[in-house]
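Box S1 | Example of a co-folding query
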Amino acid sequence: MISLETTISNKTFSNCLMNASGVKCMTLEELSNLKNSESGTWITKSCTISPREGNPSPRYVDLQLGSINSMGLPNLGFEFYLDYALKEHKSGNDNLFFSVAGLTLEDNIEMLTQIENSDFQGLVELNLSCPNIPGKPQTGYDFDRTDEVLKQVFSFYTKPLGVKLPPYFDIVHFEMMANILNKYQLRFITCINSIGNALYVEDESVVIKPKGGFGGIGGAYVKPTALANVRMFHKLLKKDISIIGCGGVESGKDVFEHILCGASMVQIGTQLMKDGTKVFSKILTELKEIMKDKNYTTILDFKGKLKEL
Ligand code: ERO
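Box S1 (continued) | Returned holo structure for ERO
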């Protein structure tokens, strides 16, 4: 009997799959579809205090090996998502993730204060890595700023919280970020967000409108970078910080590799956008097949156990 059950912080989920924030999780209808899907849990679209339209279209394009996006944080505003989360809580469900991406530290503190003082008991993913807001740097690339944000957040916030990180590409950067993260009572990190500010060219033209065509890349293009980030942080972070892998997941094999590298949970972005929520059952079936072939019965049988030469 194979179990895909997994645990993050004080929550246990029936399986290790969920959506990546931003993908099919903005409206009530999309959130209900995710809730009713085969995924182990789900997360809301990163929100700001006020609703946002986001960037002009075209702003999301499927590519041969992935996607490029510059959505610009379109969302229905904090109140909508808090209201949604509280309704879930009232109906007895606290096993969902709430994504927060304030445009300033003050905005993040304002939203987290309201969550802290509410009945919501789920997990919060604080997004420190949106690459698509003109004029706003990705916090996760500014080490001192990240430290300051976490210091201020953990001065009052007591509920389970994690951060969504941008991809890192330098060993010293991994070490610097891990040293900062290890100072705080983080319950998880999610890595990676899209590889920011890439450029895709077709027929002598860019393919998305915002920022002169620059956008975040997801999908198969980013899998090796995602696995490297999951692996490195698995080695460097204290063991009570779980890792949620994200990047390039199209199949059970991709999920298996994320878990081998150290992920406890795996998010799906580009492929969920392409296939809709039926992607979860397909990938779960493939993952179970792989585990069956290898005689693994739980995720813990292979989590973090990547072989090195
Ligand atoms: O443009 C966005 O809304 C967006 N796209 C990403 O690839 N990652 C994000 O974190 C994000 C907004 C928070």
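DSSP finds nine helices and 15 strands in the chain. The radius of gyration is 18 Å.
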